[in-house]
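ugh ok fine here u go
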Amino acid sequence: MAANGSNGSASGAGGGDAAPAPPAISVRLDIVERMKRWEGKVAVVTGASGAIGGAIAKELVRAGMIVCALSRRRDKVEKLRASLFDVAGNLNCVECDITEEDDVKQAFGWIESAYGGVDMLVNNAGVITKCLLTEKNNTRDLYTTMETNIIGLCLCTREAVKSMKARDVKGHIINVNSIFGHKVHQAVPGTRPLNGMYPASKFAVTAITECIRQELIYLDTGCKVTSISPGLVEGDILSTVSTKENEIVKYMPKLKPEDVAEAVLYAITTPENVQINELIIKPMGEFL
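structure:
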């Protein structure tokens, strides 16, 4: 959309020539207008029972999307749905453990039978454990982190791309990453490190996002993929766990879950020829 403007005729005292019209100005449509392309489309959001996932699900429903929340906690998703009224879209809870392949296949199968398929996937589910990499008896925690943050993400992405490709849908995949997918937090000497397996799993998401981008080109899908990496966010797993272990985290600046949701809206409403591959957002004053 372009708007042409002119300052009008500008004759000088001596009757000089009119000033040339300024070049056309590119004007971006309002976010509500840009979201219309997603009205009635189906979005899968994993981890919608959490702070960030819930905020993203809310915004997509308000924009008129059919949101299928994959979660092991139906009660939390139902509470979220009860808070939504007078909205254009709707929210469904699909019970699913994304670390279990059969669960993922059944969930996407149900979505296909109910709504025809998937147009958008938000890989938001993630876990963080307090164990050290060198700690004894930490095997289960290590597997849990990798199975949720990496394998579960890949399983959901595989099923979503399969649906998009079969229906020739130019969809979008959002991977909710982390600032720790780009840097490892430095521990204060003498204090217990808070990193464990979490940064490794998020660094993997950074690499996986680029691998997916290349595969989507190879498959000629026209689909986009975006990694969104927030810093500390109020109520998310990283802030909650870190605050319990490190008092200083309580006083650090944090984003709101809605800030991450708005970043998602920005990424999914870019023009067809524009892809936001990586978006890092931090609260003002963050010193991680």
